[in-house]
Amino acid sequence: MTIWLTLCVVTLLVAYLIGSTPTGYTLAKLLKGIDIREHGSGSTGATNVLRTLGKGPGAFVLVIDAFKGVLAIALVPWLFSFATGQNLLPPTVDPTLWLSWMVTLSGLAAILGHSKSIWLGFSGGKSVATSLGVLLAMNWQVALATVGVFGVAIAISRIVSLSSIAGAIAVSLLMLLFHQPLPYVLFGIVGGIYVILRHKSNIQRLLDGTEPHLGQKSSTANQ
To answer: Quick check: 192 and 168 in contact, CB under 8 A?
Structure first.
């Protein structure tokens, strides 16, 4: 059991490190020689990269940050396959139950890594794109429905942060609607709350009426 638990901990640490990969920061350094944290909202995420560097770099960061979430979840089936092949899976472990919990914890680890990157002094983005990648790997229907909520919200408001918050709120409800296992529902609740908390400054600007709309140049941005 000790070996199995050690493998689980190592998997979660790797998931965190994957999430910690500073995509936006690295791209800004390579393209412009700037620290993205000193521009716009100070975030390393796709929206701040979009406003600071343009559409192409913004789209690239969005895709890579989402892929980080997918990759973190992909570690879990590999872990179970390796443990089974090496006879390291204890007989007391229920693979189905452990799998859903490990997927949930790996997803949360990647989200934490993106927003609190060890390579950037525990700073980062708002974790929206990485959360989307995690959702795609968990259940693509929930992910697409969440994107749908985001799309409707942004079509109406033209505000990225507000739309991201709407998507974060919708996730746990969609997990229930699509009859997902309890760990996934808890992921929706915990992950959604975390993403909302990461938008604290955006919420204040929304209340003040100063949050920028889509396409608007500003010194403050969403992620």
So the answer is: yes
